[in-house]
Amino acid sequence: MKVLIIGGGGREHAIAQSVAKSPKVDKIYCAPGNAGIAEIAECAPIGVMEFDKLKEYAIEKAVDFVIVAPDDPLVAGLADVMTEAGFKTFGPSKAAAILEGSKAFSKDLMKKYNIPTAAYDTFDDADAAIDYLKNSKFPVVLKADGLALGKGVLICNTYEEAVAGVKEIMLDKKFGTAGNRMVIEEFMTGREVSVLTFVDGKNIQVMTSAQDHKRAKDGDEGLNTGGMGTFSPSPFYTDEVDAFCRKYIYQATVDAMRAEGREFKGVIFFGLMLTPDGPRVLEYNARFGDPETQVVLPRMKNDIIEVMEACVDGTLDQVTLEFEDNAAVCVVLASDGYPLAYEKGFEIKGLDAFAGKDDYFCFHAGSKFAEEKVVTAGGRVLGITAKGDTLKEARTKAYAATEWVSFDNKYMRHDIGKAIDEA
Ligand code: AMP
Ligand code: GLY
């Protein structure tokens, strides 16, 4: 079987490594890929939003299966384009990816189907939003409706800050058209957990839990990023929490999407807040998380292609997901300055150190080849993952492995997984 993966970050490298383990797969293609993915796949320099070129490439290579990993092409309908072209495609349709593509849609869905989430209101107009803030409790959370590279969320401590936030989102269009509408919601407290699930339209299978660290600096200081590191499983995601979420959140979401005529097939990523009043949905994503995937998939025992095919075929009820009884930690090595300005083009040295070590993974996020060398090409450069019997062991091993590689302006957080000491 020939598989085409769309995307080119650390998540896609982790997906590609899982796909490469499948006995069904002979050849992997990836667009655009990166220098790490190129070791196991043939990469083509085609952007994830170049739908016509991607379709032509899939036809030229006569692929048997397409995996669309990133949010932008999913929300814009790449899975539909590929499916209509006759390719078996893993990833939700445009109609279903709205679960991530519009926060107003997802909040309304949760309200309509009684799925626990923060109280909220939706606004199309800045004056009405500002008026609403006059009676709000602070802090309050402002969210641009559309996709905003994970940055369209503002937590505002005072009325003045919130008014400034509404203006940034709706009038100054800081997040572009994502800010044509916005959601204002209640601020929740608690631990965050990421739960990835496979969905076939009707049935849902839950993967092991994970936790991300979104802020750039140690101690959860600094700006929000795409994610600076993860661990899995989350010790805070207890059996009791799991039972609650299965009963009131996961299947309820799948059923709600079906009832709305937006059958969801692919991965639903539940961003949960474990509040003192029980688990609540913070957000939905219509895809694998990054860097959650880098700690979840290395622990999965199943053949990922079999699971993905079951999602497309609607036979996920016949699949049992199995995870290793261990733990994994991923530390992101970034370019200093990320998520703002940073330099790139520096040689990455020491990558060979990972060869032949089963417990260690070096997932490339922003890397490319230049004059036969591998150089930095993005804000997040590598995701260094290690598995261990316990979270503590995995963390010690992952941090040890961060020393094996070097590049100029290498930056990382030093407290990934520190929270587990409190568990
Ligand atoms: P989102 O993109 O919706 O996941 O939001 C990004 C981050 O903002 C989340 O990971 C939370 O840390 C924070 N956040 C979002 N919504 C809320 C909320 N209602 N209460 C507290 N924190 C929130
Ligand atoms: N790590 C968070 C995300 O993928 O959205």
Provide a brief overview of the structure:
It contains 12 helices and 22 strands. By secondary structure, the chain is α+β, with helices and mostly antiparallel strands. A hairpin with a 3-residue loop joins strand 10 and strand 11 (204-212).
List its traits.
29% helix; 9-stranded antiparallel sheet; alpha+beta; 5-stranded parallel sheet; binds adenosine monophosphate; 423 residues
Write the layout of secondary structure elements.
Elements: E1 2-7, H1 10-21, E2 27-32, E3 42-43, H2 51-61, E4 65-68, H3 71-75, H4 78-84, E5 88-90, H5 94-101, H6 103-112, E6 120-123, H7 126-133, E7 140-144, E8 153-156, H8 159-171, E9 182-186, E10 191-200, E11 204-212, E12 215-217, E13 221-224, E14 229-232, H9 239-259, E15 265-275, E16 278-285, H10 293-296, H11 304-313, E17 327-335, E18 360-364, E19 367-370, E20 373-376, E21 380-388, H12 391-402, E22 410-411
Parallel strand pairs: 1-2, 1-4, 2-3, 4-5
Antiparallel strand pairs: 6-9, 7-8, 7-9, 10-11, 10-15, 11-14, 12-13, 14-17, 15-16, 17-21, 17-22, 18-21, 19-20
Bound molecules: adenosine monophosphate and glycine (GLY).
The site of adenosine monophosphate has 14 residues, from strand 8, strand 9 and strand 16.
